[in-house]
Amino acid sequence: MERVKSWLLAFLVALSLVQSFLLAYSIPGISTTVRTEQDYVNTEPMGAEQTVEDVIFPEQIVLHFGNGKHTVMNAGDLPYYSSVYDKLKNREFTSFQKMSPYVVDWKEIRSANLGLELSFGSGIPVELLRKVMKLQGNQEFMADSVDRIWIFRSISGSGDEVRTFFFSSGGQAVYESKRADLSVQDVEDDVGLGAYLTPYAVTEDGLYVPQEPVEAAEAIVGYDAYPPDLMQRNLFFDPGTTRTLKDRSGSQVYTDGKHALQVEQDGEWIRYTDPAAPQNNEQSGSAGSNVSSGVVAAVVFINQHGGWDGRHQLQSTADASTGIGKSLLFGQYFRLDANRSFPILPGGGFRFGYMKLTAQQSVVTGYERSLITLSETPEAKVVRWLPGGTELQKALGGFSRRAEVQALFPAVKAEPLEHGKLRFDPVWVVRLSDGTRQTLTGALPAGFDGSAYKKKLSGRGLLEGTGPLSADNGGASGATTQGGSASGGNPAGTQQGSGAGEAPASESGGSPDGAQ
Prior knowledge:
globular; 25 strands; alpha+beta; 516 residues; TATA-Binding Protein; 15-stranded mixed sheet; 10 helices
């Protein structure tokens, strides 16, 4: 009997130990969970999410047909633009060799060789571009920034071949990919997509100008706006600790003592600052890797705090005005229909169409954006035509900062109307060497029929006689090739010193990056 009691007691002690183990290690929630500010993500649904790959794409793709003929695909010219760019994103470019930009006669290549150019505006770090394209190169190439990729068919005694060059943003070097996964047939197919697009001529300084009016549209679009208190709950770790103030301008300010959220423009624009964010060492790593980590952090931050209203493009990676970190500008596109969209240029003092963030490597310290969300389809739209040919050339020739113009493209200017509506007016926009964007000229008078005008020309194919323009009809006055040789010329005809500068707003419809 005593032996049975002993065995029973031992069994009960063992069972007690097993239960204690299960209680300590197997029941969820037994440990304490501490929520930190870095882990906090508000779950209230707002805009859609995007990836870094979604916001990096060329400003323009220029197609060269040879015989001095060209056309341009702007980033909103779908689906042809997407067809070309999507193909290139899936090809590999390796074995890069650095060389002087003046060893190739680029003017001759532009005029005579079948090919295409991808323009990335003020430039993009290779470290960031490789997130979109399959690039593999040495450390020097990966640490550089590029503003243009030029692919062309080269004819030699040994047969046709494809050559591919990446242009450094500083204009002092080009990198040739000695192993590019492209065939002559690939280049011919891509260029063939533009056979019936609007013909463009090229100025002496490498600016592409359409030789016919370009079809666009004026549209009226309804919109909603997120309430500011939703952004307050989204951006603050503990919204219950925030208080509301009024600044001298009458703007509403939310603050918890460390962060500040300023609400402006009748509750449709916000400016968020986090001065208490850790000050990362900006000197560590290459400039390209610092920009890359900042852009990745910015995209994630926007995904978590407001999301994206439609398509956006990374347009500037300039140094912040404070001298610490990078100022990142994401420009919005207005979707007119399934096949066309246009970059938005804010009109006058109305802030809309961009998001601006300040990032110190992987930490976002500043955030500005509109709370407006556009309706998916316009309430009304009417075809309008932007001028081309002589009229556009005259507008360029009379532009006060003509020597600084580095790109010309169609856009829309946003103007607020009553009752929750915006009007989008088509305009020609120029990008200047300091990164700013300004309106060059507006649309032709309402009722102008560009299709009838085109019928008077040589069909829908490329026009005859679309060679280089002179200084008198839109070329830069006194433009000379950079770096000496008249036969070599500056790569792609661009001017030196094109930095990714801040883009301050202007009364004439300038870009917004200077809003402080």
